[in-house]
Model the fold of this input.
Amino acid sequence: MSRAVRRRRGAALLAVAIACGALAAAQVQGRVAELERSVGAPVAVVVAARDLEPGTELAAGDLRAAEVPARYAPPDAASAPAQAVGLTTAGPIAAGSPITAGVLGADVAGGGPGALRRGERAVDVRVAGGAALADAAPGTRVDVLVSTDPTDGPGRSFVALEDVELLGLGAGAPSDLAADPAATAPAATATLRVTLRQAVYLTAAEAFSGGLRLLPRPPGDRRRVGRATVGATDL
Done:
């Protein structure tokens, strides 16, 4: 085989290798873009560098920076360690857990305890079982339970949102009880801190479902339970 032939063959193999590399890079880039569309781009959050006891005054060594997809980032999480240094934990925090206003009992992003931050919305929704929320103060973390209307098919209840901050709770309008004489508990109007997407979801759920219910969390409980669902056929 002549040197010219070997050179042409080498150039052809190099071109094939470059093309394969470009194709693989494009596939990886497409996969990354698909994931970001699904769960959001990575955002900065501050997490506990070790297990922290209640009443711990946070020092820089107790914290570390991390990135999580936007969908899983708590809206009240600190984005820089300096926002939390010097504050005191209100409950236990496991290593790797986000540092949030809920676990510190203080606003970590500035603007006051009820102030909305970039990307956040305050949404009012009617919720059942207001009496169970009588002791829920602003800042309480809650899970949102949605029950579908059984007249439109098999009824079911599921956890729609987890670990949402309650900004306020007011009495429901008298018309709420008049519209549902069979209600076992008075309705209440809850104001929740959510993202825009979550606000649209809750508004639709309030309008088209069989009702919403809030489940208060104990202080410091930030665990994720997933989309738990129970249908009428499961009872």
Q: What stands out?
A: The first strand starts at residue 42 and ends at 48.
